[in-house]
Every structure is written in structure tokens, then in C-alpha cells.
Amino acid sequence: MAGSRGEYRKSAQRREQIVEAAFAVFAKAGYTASSVSQIAREVGMTQAGVLHHFAGGKTALLEAVLERRDERAEQVLEGRRGTGFLAGLVEISREQAGLRGAVQLYTILSAEATDPDHPAHERFRDRVERIASAVANAYAEARADGALREGVEPRAAALSTLAMTEGLELLWLNGQDVDMAEAIRAHINTFLAEPLQPALPGARQTADQPTPTAR
Amino acid sequence: MAGSRGEYRKSAQRREQIVEAAFAVFAKAGYTASSVSQIAREVGMTQAGVLHHFAGGKTALLEAVLERRDERAEQVLEGRRGTGFLAGLVEISREQAGLRGAVQLYTILSAEATDPDHPAHERFRDRVERIASAVANAYAEARADGALREGVEPRAAALSTLAMTEGLELLWLNGQDVDMAEAIRAHINTFLAEPLQPALPGARQTADQPTPTAR
Prior knowledge:
Two copies of one chain form a homodimer. Chain A is mainly alpha-helical. Helix content of chain A is about 65%, strand content about 0%. The first copy, chain A, has two domains: about 1-65, Arc Repressor Mutant, subunit A (Orthogonal Bundle), CATH 1.10.10.60; about 80-215, Tetracycline Repressor, domain 2. The interface between A and B is large, with 54 and 54 residues. Chains A, B: InterPro entries: Homeodomain-like_sf, HTH_TetR, Tet_transcr_reg_TetR-rel_C_sf.
């Protein structure tokens, strides 16, 4: 019993190491140009060893890497609704600013996956739709609470919010001085009757630098 | 003389064919995973033959592919200023909607190039800065003409416009039903005292479908 628990723990650690290695390799070379054998080398295993833990091969490794990103977002958003959920999006964005590698990896993978022949194409389409629905739902709840401006359509506001989020990440990765979290907060506020509260004390201030938040 | 003119024309045609092939190969596999020999095969030449026309190799081919996209944008924007320039951005976006392959290629390349070690990293950073400056300049001209809303900061409006443009392209490539041109027009209008004129008759109408344009 103890032995099998130990085995399980060891296997979970191994999986964790492999996912870390997959993350690093994908981030460096992109998904298309990466191989399972590269990932195996990175973690000091054989290709067969990696496939023992991830029978689905490179696609399964991609899933694991993406799930890890989504899990964190789900933790932040759990149990929230309406404007509370929207404020959560700003918090997630603030975290992202400290995780350049993760943002870069996700940007590269989601761009590659726009190719309809890409093995993860459907997965990314579904993911975008799932996120768009969740954000639209939050805007609909905000509307029911009387928190939306007159005439704002929840689905349209959600797509606009997602587009702004993705676009700001790309500009930021390309060296532009943008405060993503504050810019997204300001963008969400254009749809709300009452603005989301500003950044907490200690968050990066934007007063003396140009950001896309000014109106 | 006639012979050398003929040679020149033939060489220009060859270059054109090679750029087309590079476009197709990059669009399919991304920049990192593509090779000059693949591009040569596509156009029925040897690798040495391609390198005769593009001595800089894969990087030079990438430059040529990107320049072609930018040339078209420059044609549309030439001689325009202020809100006329901003209206040009909407026109470019409308053209893009008919060029899925080009938008996809650019999205993949610019995502790959966010890696500081990518050979085209500096080029993409510079390109983003050049575009941001040009758009900020147009907003500044609009402000001088009294065409901006009170308190709009040209540079911030420019970055916001670029982020929205890039983000909408990604959502569109990921299967979301967004009318990019109309969404960008609506976004630019949030900064203007007088809205840009709506879509010309014959342009896709958005009345009965959700787009990020609604407010």
C-alpha cells in the first residue's frame, strides 16, 4: 500500500517534470517545431519514458501545458459572478504580467493553432468559445444587476474584452510599454455603469506613462 | 540591352514566385519549422538557386513576405492624415477579411517573433513601434483638427486601436463571428468627436449578429 502510494507520488512528480520541460521546449521552439524526443532529453528520459506518462504524445503534452494555465484562471474566477467575475479578469491579467514566458508560449501556440490543419485547432476554437461564453455570461449577469451601460450587448462586450486582452499581450510581448491589467480594466469600464475599482495600492501606477487606458 | 531587360524581368518573376512559395510554406509550417530547401522544392528550384535571389536566406524571405503586406497598407494610407488615415485603417481591415491566409501567416510570424531569440524579433518590435507611431501621429493630427474627444491621448488611443486590431484577427481566425472592419471602426469612434462614416453600401451588415462593436 505504502509502496503504491509512493509509486503514485513519484509518477505525479515525473508528470510534473515532463510538463515543465514541455512548457520550456514549446516556449522556445513553438509547438510545430518541437518534438517529444526533445522534451524527453530536457528531462533526462527516453522518448518511450515520456510516452509512458503521456500516451497521447505531443498533443497530450500540449493539453497538459494549456490546462495548467487555465487551472490558475479558474481558481481566480471560481464562485464569482457579474462584475466580480470581470474584476477577476483584471486580476488574472495582472498576474500574467509577471509570467512573460507563459504569455509568450500561449501567444505562439494559439497563433499556430489558427491553421485548420493544426492538431490543436479544434481545441483552441473550443477554448475561445468557452471563454467567450463565460465572459458574455458575466456581462449578462452584470446587466441583470443593473451594472451595464444602456445598450451594451453582453456577447459583443465579451468579444471586445477578449480581443483587447489578446491584442495587449501581443503589443506587450513586442516591447510596447503597456500596463495590461489597467488597460483591460479601463476597457471593461467602458461597458459598465459604475467603474471597477482602480488598482490596489502597490500595483504599478500608470499616471506618468502612456497606456491605452486614457480616454 | 533587350537581353538584359529580359533577364531582369525573368529574375523579377523568379523572385516573385519564390516570395509566393515562401508565403505558402511559412503559412503552413510557421517560420521556425520552415526551411529554404522546402521553399525551393515548392517552386521547383535548388536551395542554391533560391539563395542566388535571396542571399540573406530564410530571414530575407521573411522580410520579403512581410514587406509585401506592408506595401499594400502603405498604398491605402499614402497621402492621408488625421481621421482620413484612421478611416484607411478600417479599409485595410476590410481587405484583410478576404485574405485569411495572409492574416494567419502574419499572426503566426508575429507570435513566434515575440521570442527575444527569434531572428526576426527586432524587426517585429521595430515594425510595431513604427505602426504605433504612425497611428499616434494620425490621432495627434485629428486632435489638432478638433476631431478627438476631450482628454483622448493620441499614443494611448493608437495602442488601444492596434491591440483591438490584433486581438480581433486572432478571435476571427479562431472561428468567432466578428466583423473586424466594423468593430475597429466602432472602436476608433470611441476616441472621435465625430464618428467615421459607417460601412459603404454592400459591405457586410452587422445589425442582426453580435459583434464587439455594439455599445
